[in-house]
Specification:
Length: 432
Amino acid sequence: MGAAVAAALVALGALAAGVLIGRYYVPDDRELRRAARHARSFARALNFVLARDRDAAVDELMRVVDDNVSDLEPYFALGALFRSRGEWERAIRVHQALELRPEADVPTRARALYELALDFRAAGMPRRAIRAMEQVLALDAGHDGAVRALCALYEQQGLYAEAARAWERVAQRGADVPRDRLGHLWAAAARAAAAAGDVGEARAALREAERYAPGTPPVASAAIAVAVACGDERAAAKRAREALVRAPHLAEVWVAQLEACERRVARTEAEPAADAQAAEQRAADVDRVVSERLARAIAEAIAEAGPQPDLLLARARVRADSDPAAAWADARAAVSARPDDLAARVAAARLALAAGGDDDVRGELAALVAPAGPLDALVGRPWRCATCARRAAAHAWRCDGCGHWGTLKRAPIAAEADAAVPRDRRAAPRGA
């Protein structure tokens, strides 16, 4: 009897020892098995993404989420997939939920807000994207991707002063920010403030632009706009004449601004018209005075900068009505210096028509260079970005395609088609 009791006690002790050993000393491999399942799901999801089967990738990630709701990485991956599929509402909900999680630390919140800002930008809500990017920088002032995306959003919304200040903060942290970019931004801010009638803000922005890029064409354009906003047309005309000498390749731009200034000055100098006939004569006198002043200003620029083709073409256009023969001579000289410039050749052909010639030649040329003729489609968008090859009908300091500044040049004959707008998705530059 005693032996049986002893054996039973030994068995119970062994059982208890086994339970304790199994509970506290044998490792629990459930987490390992779960991690292995998740790794396989992530690998399959990656394979589906590479195969462009995003629906299957979403299904794989949903299995991971259902198995473990505390892991945040599958949610970030799901949000990015939703955004890539154009399901912006679902992506926004995912990233908003991640940002509002009670256990989310500051880096996680900053990451969720950055992804949320990308969702807003992709969904066409730039103002909400700007607010989200600003929240990212409030949490992480050194977030390079947020700074770059925020600056691009500022530029797209015409908030050039804010973009310039953001880039200045980047430069203060030791990053390499080109001074000409800051000059472009402050010059654009000055032009925008001048157009809005805010003279004080325009002058302040112009001072910043001159500090970063003194004497450059965008700063000269901003100075002209600020002078016009201040009501000083003569100072604006003086700036335009100086720009003709410094940047003759943009003569078309400067002559247009100079003409507007001189026309306003001539109108103030002309006597008021008493009747319709006097008003018509007054308008003709204003046109004559403006044409003479423009021709004189371009001649002075040619004397200082030399016979640049753009200056010669500009003077030819100005003198086309008053002196067709002299205009044709200027156009012929410009074409001889730049024989591959189709726009120059069309302008020269039109001036040749005005100067006279054989009737048959005139008829053929008239059909060729007519405003709606076959060559007009080629020269209707004569400006092309040197970075992305996007073409534009009018000169601008910022390319709407790639966002680069000061890259619009005269397009050659065989200009490429407009390039697609590059995506700015990475949180950091490649190779960082």
